[in-house]
Amino acid sequence: MFRLKDGLHTLLLTGASGNAAALIGGVTLHSATNIGFEGKNEVARNISEEEKLRWKNMVMLIVDEISQVGGLTLAAVDSRLRQYRDDQHRPFGGIPTVMFFGDFFQFDPVLQTSLLLPTPRDRSGQRPESAARHLAAHKLFLQFTTVVILREQVRAAGCPRLRGFLRRLRNGEQTEQDFQRLSQRLYTPSCKSSFVDGLRAITPLNQDRWDLNMAAVIQWARAHGKHISIFVAKHDTESGKRLRVEELGDVLRHGDDSQLPTPGLFFYAQGMPVAVTRNQFVGLKVVNGAPFMAVDIFPDLAFGTIALTSDVTLHLGPPVAVLLHSDDSADLIPGLPNGTILVKSKTVAIPSQMRGKEGRWRGKPGFRWVTHRTGPLCTPAFAMTDQKSQGKQFSDVLVNLKGVHSSGTATRPSFMSLYVQLSRAQSWDGLHLFRKPASSDFIEPKNVLDKDMRDAILKLERQGEKTRRRFEQDHRHEPWFQEWDAMAESVQATEAADEEAVASL
């Protein structure tokens, strides 16, 4: 519609994360409004008249993955748009239409609290003004009174058993029979699925992810006859201090994570799947979490190599760059093969928390003297964390249903980790478990969404019912209404089919 009316400049598509923005061809909400990632405004700067005019012409703002937007972030966005549009009295500076999309059966926003809740979850570590800003954002969110709830389970549309299982789990109605059937999905060496032919793994722990990815690269490469290259990241230390062998081992074993976007050891084989670990080119969808295929790699000839076996080479330094296949860069980048994009190695600072330089942080083993790491901003993508799996779906997936204690030991999985992991599967036969779940993980007592969030979601659903009744009342005299009203509810037909399928099993 906007394109037909030559009005694309009046529509802004944004996402809560780089990956969400890339999937809809937009930009991140943070970059669009120039705010920090904890809801803080960036360094104050003068706003050009051109920028003000661009925002004043905006007719519609769309935000995808709203469940990943916390109260502090929404408050900062609202404040910034009022400033951009010279309108301090209306929400979002009076943009005529603001639309939110998302599923609240996902993890909470990082370091913030869901907009559904009136108070921050962790109030002890927050300043009073932060709690006030979150409450203001929550009240702003409640002003969105037109709510449309989509109930059809699209990801598992072709599998009644999985569809019914996920519906009961989502509603907190899982049964002993569900638990027994889930327990039978244990992955064994006799399973036909493997990393060689498309299996993907999900786990809450980064350490598990690193280990799985290294093993998967070797398995995949040897099955496809590809050479394996292992690149060692470059580490800078205070005053050139030489690390002890134990410290160096600890540092290299530490892969990429949310604080450090490049791995200590980068395992590579041509054609393997990789995921980008930091936003780089949002317009080309080279964003944090985005999947690609590795086309080629360029070793740095300044570093030596060691042939570990006939098909494995250890490179004593990071590569110069990794070449990725990208349909979005076709015919755009001169000098590169068509449909590829280059991701260069970068030098990143080691956060002070990792080095134990802040009193309340113990630091990571081996990192006390390390100041910088240099390596590629991507990682093998055979395995991923439950957080990064959100929004993805797989025909064959291996899930690790365990919780994570602050000490790193396994505990009961949170409901959200349980639901997010299990709902990545497209079919029951394509769902596999690392380990047999304990009844306490799932059914004794039932692992359900916490009461505050469940009540908030029910309130949102009631608002959706009000929206529908209002829509029906406003349009019942339209010529198309009777035909629309007679259409079968897909969710009702689906639930009936699910019950019939379960009864016949």
Give the % helix: 25-40%
Nearest-angstrom radius of gyration?
A: 25 Å
The share of residues in extended strands comes to 15-25%
Q: What is the spatial order of strands in the main beta sheet?
A: 7-15-14-13-10-9-16
Distance between the termini: 47 Å
- Tally the structural domains: 3
Regions with little confidence, pLDDT below 50 for 5+ residues: none
Tell me, what's the shape?
globular
Q: Helix/strand/pairing class, anyone? A: alpha/beta
Mean pLDDT: 89
Let me know the number of strands. Answer: 21
- Major sheet description: 7 strands, antiparallel
In terms of quaternary structure, the protein is: single chain
Q: Total number of helical segments?
A: 14
Quick rundown:
With 505 residues, the protein is an alpha/beta fold.
Describe it for me?
- With 505 residues, this protein is α/β, with parallel strands linked by helices.
- It is built from 14 helices and 21 strands.
- The protein has helices spanning 18-23, 29-33, 49-56, 71-84, 128-142, 160-170, 176-183, 206-223, 245-253, 415-422, 439-442, 451-475, 481-486, 490-504, and strands spanning 11-15, 27-28, 60-64, 97-100, 200-203, 228-232, 234-237, 265-268, 273-276, 291-299, 305-309, 312-315, 319-325, 340-349, 370-376, 378-380, 383-385, 397-399, 403-404, 410-411, 431-433.
- The strands form 5 sheets. Strands 7-15-14-13-10-9-16 form a 7-stranded antiparallel sheet.
List keywords for this structure.
single chain, about 500 residues, alpha/beta, 7-stranded antiparallel sheet, 4-stranded parallel sheet, 14 helices, 21 strands, about 30% helix
